[in-house]
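User: I want to check something. If I give you two sequences, will you return the structure for each one separately, not as a complex?

Assistant: Yes, each is folded on its own. Here is the first sequence with its structure:
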Amino acid sequence: MVAVWAVKTLLLFASDWGWWGVEASSRGIVQVVLPQRSPHQVRKQLGSVESSASLLAEEAAGQIQEYLYGRRQRLTVPVDLELFSGFARHILEACAQIAYGETVSYSELARRAGKEGAARATGQALGANPVPILVPCHRIIGADGSLGGFSGGLEMKRRLLELEGRWPLAEADSG
């Protein structure tokens, strides 16, 4: 048996939103660090990783910046969810299919992932999403139209939904 070790690379970049981090493996993006005040704060969240950027990390950073400035609606860089399996992976994969400007409830996302009735567990799986924005968990809302949660905070979730023309939410958005 041959052991394969995926070398990870890291890229830090700044936007009007703050400093971001993108970590890539040879298979895809493994982590997106949401905006922080300084590059040092981003590095603390990423831990020890090679500090050379790969073309894939550069492409992801460019696509995220285009998205943040309203010039891109679809992010196409590959995501590496290799560390996830079972329920969490099904949820993240279903979430990745939610289109720009669409919101669905936690229960609707669970249904789409074939896990009907698992809205609470869906929220927990999304809370562990290592690649927010690329897997757009900010598009998931409560059945009552509330924002629910978001690892970047509710203000950022509101701002992302506003960017996509989905804030304020209409009652029909709860799915």
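And separately, the second sequence with its own structure:
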Amino acid sequence: MLETGQKAPGFSLKDQNGKIISLSDFYGKKVAVYFYPKDDTPGCTTQGCNIRDNFSELKKKNILIFGISKDSPESHKRFSEKYGFNFPILSDEKGEVIEKYGVFKEKSIFGKTFMGIIRTTFLIDEKGIIKKIIKKPDTANHSKEIIQGFAD
């Protein structure tokens, strides 16, 4: 797992509209990158909708936000359109960025163990340095956690 103070690993991934988004294009800006397990599941929907509903507040604070999961751009498009997301969600189907950020780990649900994405958000400052890592974000209040994390 990465730590605060480290340089955030770069990436270039397709968003829900097929546009390539590169982290390096946003140096000089505050960026929140949140990793989530799966499109259109309860926690991931709650998290995305919270960000959507508070997007103007994030924008006022000059914070850009990108969601990342292993789902395809087509799945992201359906998910984004269904809930009216107003921010990019990026597809990492090969899991390379997810691995770089150390968020693909063993999980356990109902006594069953499997590998999956651990919901985690990285707050990256204007110089590309990880300012804060939010482990186990509160999906219903995530935008507040992001704003507070950049304010600390």
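Because they were folded independently, the notes below concern the second chain alone. The two ends are 21 Å apart (CA to CA). The mean pLDDT is 95.
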